[in-house]
Amino acid sequence: MFARLLVIVIAAGSTALGVLTLRQQQLRAGHELAQARLELMRTEERIRRVRAEIAERTSPENVRLLGDVLGELVPARELQGAPEVREPLQQTQASALDAT
Fold first, then answer.
1. Residue range 24-47, pLDDT digits in tens
2. For a Cys staple, 83 with which of 45, 76, 87, 95, CB 3.0–4.6 Å?
3. What are phi and psi of 72, to 5 degrees?
4. pTM for the whole thing?
5. What is the pLDDT of residue 63?
6. Alpha helices for 1-100 (secondary structure H)
């Protein structure tokens, strides 16, 4: 009788320990998820601040100044009709050589 009771107590204790372990893992996973969401929110906030700074600094004068500093951009190429890869590359090369 005592042996059966001891086995039942040990089995119940093992089951309880397993349930507590699972619960602890759930809590840890929830905490990690919350931390990841918080980091995502912080990153999104930093991105919003950078975008706001860019928007505040962007004006027609700044765009013109940036264009003067960087030089002219290579014009877009016509890609209708699905030309072969070499054709747009040759057009770009010719434009670049003409610009120098």
1. 999 999 999 999 999 999 999 999
2. 87
3. -75, 145
4. 0.47
5. 72
6. 2-57, 60-70, 86-99
